Amino acid sequence: MKIAFFGQYGTFDYFRIGGTESYARRLSAGLIAQGHQVDFVSYRAPAAKACMIPEGPGLHYFSRLAEAFDFLGRYCDHVVNFYVLPHDRLRFLLFRRRNHRHIRFHQFFFNFADSPLRRLLAVADARLYPYNGRLFCVSPRQYRAVRRWSKRAMLLLPPVPEDFFLDPGAKTAGQAVCLTYIGRTEPGKGIEEVINLFQYFQGLPGIRLKLYGYHHPHCQASVSIHHWLSRQEALGYHYTPYESHDPQVDSHLRQILKDTDILLLPYLRSISTIDAPVLLLEGMAYLCATIAPVQGSIPDIYGASAFLYGDAREMPRRILHAAADPAMLETEKQRLFRRNQELGFHTGTVTRRFLEALA
Predict the structure, then answer these.
(1) pTM above 0.85, yes or no
(2) What is the DSSP code string of 67-87?
(3) Domain check: are 136 and 242 in the same one?
(4) Per-residue pLDDT tens over the stretch 55-73
(5) Total domain count for the chain?
(6) pLDDT by residue (tens digit) across 138-195?
(7) Same domain, 248 and 353
């Protein structure tokens, strides 16, 4: 099959770092391994160009929407929409109507709007501009919302490569519990809460602190926090310049997660990440006990756990309890191993479900 991931330039890109980009890269890798052709097609790009990733997808950037439509109409069996600008959706609808006999069109939902009105608009948009394929939801709460008004809804959690998954015996505890934060240095990710926690635990025996941060240059708050952290040697800050993706990013992440006992993900707003946070699933694959809020789809995915909190003030107590009780971390590790098997989100399984949906 010839499958195109389609959307406005800047909303997803093979070389960018982010949840949507990670999802697209990993799903495309699974599809290509199965012998299918995958293309990333973007419109409204600054300049038209095309290139091929070795053993990967084709990348096609078009300045004009009509040029992107011409490519999709001539070369694709399936078009998977990631994001189309509101004022381009009528043209996209007309394109789908003209080509629905030889192309199947699908939609991915990556976010869950904070505002009920925005969620209603998303529903209205999909109802007014119906698809002849699947509506893929990346989180359980998205799926529950969409399936109420569409029989085409399907839950497809973000794929995580097979080499991320550990057996319980492969993860051994050290003398000190390793508490790790990985993420952007911006308020929506909870970085200020992380800094307060790390200052609280600084110098305490039995706890190692690791803070891996990166930032987008257009976010001034993120840049300012990054510069402040760079001057705080005692907080164990490691800057990770993830401006663009390369294979070393996943390799570095695996090393970090393997060494992590407790992963800290104190999201303040679920809209700051895709609705099924990829790092949450990656941490689960590596059997990291995760401190995270009871928010969005996190409890649906992570499962019932003493590590999830309703009030951020509970975080220090729960971390201290786990650091003082090795059996608590071991129990959580075993629970996560079983949970991963229940959810089935490694790349091979997600790819198979995606292909079954397309068929």
Answers:
(1) yes
(2) HHHHHHHHH-SEEEEEE--GG
(3) no
(4) 999 999 999 999 999 999 9
(5) 2
(6) 999 999 999 998 999 999 999 999 999 999 988 877 789 999 999 888 888 889 999 9
(7) no
Report the run of H or E that residue 213 belongs to, with start and end: strand 207-214
Tell me: do 300 and 260 sit in the same domain.
yes
Q: Based on the fold, state whether residues 117 and 202 are members of the same structural domain.
A: no
User: CA angle, corner 143, sides to 139 and 144, nearest 5?
Assistant: 120
Torsion of CA 299, 303, 306, 310, to 10 degrees: 10
Nearest 5°: the CA angle 54, 60, 64 is 170
Amino acid letter for position 34: Q
Residues 120 and 224 in one domain: no
117 and 180 part of one domain? no
Owner of token pair 């059996």 = 327
The string of DSSP letters for 179-211 reads EEEEEESSGGGTHHHHHHHHHHHTT-TTEEEEE
The candidate with the shortest Cα–Cα distance to 84, out of 100, 95, 71, is 95
Instruction: Give the per-residue SS3 of 268-305.
Output: CCHHHCCCCCHHHHHHHHCCCEEEEECCCCHHHHHCCC
Half-sphere exposure of 333 (CA within 13 A, CB side): 22
How far is 123 from 327, CA to CA, in rounded Å?
A: 46
Distance between CA atoms of 16 and 108, rounded to whole angstroms?
Answer: 18
Residue type, 279: L
Tokens 């789809």, residue located: 297
CATH number at residue 122: 3.40.50.2000
Cβ atoms 212, 178 nearer than 8 A: no
